[in-house]
Amino acid sequence: xxxxxxxxxxxxxxxxxxxxxxxxxxxxxxxxxxxxxxxxxxxxxxxxxxxxxxxxxxxxxxxxxxxxxxxxxxxxxxxxxxxxxxxxxxxxxxxxxxxxxxxxxxxx
Length: 108
Hints:
mainly alpha
């Protein structure tokens, strides 16, 4: 606060939204840091880097799938259960005589 409780010049400038030299200096520092980070990112974009970035989602999906399978196997082991695989059997009948109707038609 300035004299007699009134705000000083810097406080008035910040209250009214004026840009001070300190603000400009801080923004220039932030921009320089951001520009350096962008330049480093651009320099790191090689064919190998791009390929690894492109393959990353597929690798992540495969990793999640493997982790899920391992988790389910561990849970089965804890419960002392196993995945039951059912066998489907098909029985066919072959006769030489035609199938006899019991008197009920198809209804049309």
